[in-house]
Amino acid sequence: MNNNTIVHKYIKPLIHTDDVTVDMTVGNGNDTLLLSNLSKKVYGFDISSEAIERTKTKLTKDNVTLINDNHINVDKYIKEDIRLFIFNLGYLPHSDDNNHTKAEETLIAFKKAYELILNGYIIITFYIGHIGGKDEYYLLDKYIKQANIKVIEKYKQDKINSPITYIIKKSS
Ligand SMILES: C[S@@+](CC[C@H](N)C(=O)[O-])C[C@H]1O[C@@H](n2cnc3c(N)ncnc32)[C@H](O)[C@@H]1O
Predict the structure, then answer these.
(1) Quick one: which H or E segment has residue 45?
(2) CA of 3 to the centre of ligand 1 (A)
(3) DSSP-based three-state secondary structure for 170
(4) How close is the Cα of 40 to the center of ligand 1, in Å?
């Protein structure tokens, strides 16, 4: 099973119908669609307007607020308690590769996301085979260890450079 399939299976029992969730990288909208079907309300970020458009065409419910902005600005848009954030890092497939997530920005966004959770989860997938993906993974992994953040599950297929997913839990 690939990381996205695992993540989707994992997410389902974690979200209740009155929860608010956030997709920090909407891309093609697959994760946003799942969150929309499970949650009361969803926020979705992407720096690419093409990703926002692709996501719009996929959604079937009107409970999603799509935001065409860098996810480092998450705290400007969200002031409420969030049950789950998903970060599916990397770039938009079949698009400009330069729009890939960048280590320092991802760290800022991750810290802000963590602050917005009272009791909930961050699910983050690193693409270590992509440009900058290894640096991004090392930086975030170092921070997560230093800050004593609880990783309850790690998933990586048994192949060199295959993506790595962390499931992180925060309890108040
Ligand atoms: C691998 S794709 C996401 C796939 C998506 N979750 C799905 O289900 O199809 C990564 C996305 O992150 C976006 N992205 C890159 N840097 C970003 C940033 N700083 N803030 C928000 N989105 C960003 C890219 O434009 C791209 O669409």
Answers:
(1) strand 41-45
(2) 16
(3) strand
(4) 22
Task: Chunk the chain into consecutive blocks of 10 residues (it has 172) and report each block's average pLDDT, rounded to whole numbers.
Answer: 91 97 98 98 97 97 98 98 97 83 98 98 96 96 98 93 97 90
Tell me how far the alpha carbon of residue 23 lies from the centroid of ligand 1, in angstroms.
9
Q: What is the CATH number of the domain that holds 146?
A: 3.40.50.150
Total number of domains in the chain: 1
Q: Separation of 142 CA from ligand 1 center, angstroms?
A: 22
Q: State which H helix or E strand residue 124 sits in.
A: strand 120-126
Domain that holds residue 55: 3-170
Task: Please state the pTM of the whole predicted model.
Answer: 0.97
Top mutation candidate among 8, 30, 35, 47 for ligand 1, by most atoms within 8 Å of CB? 47
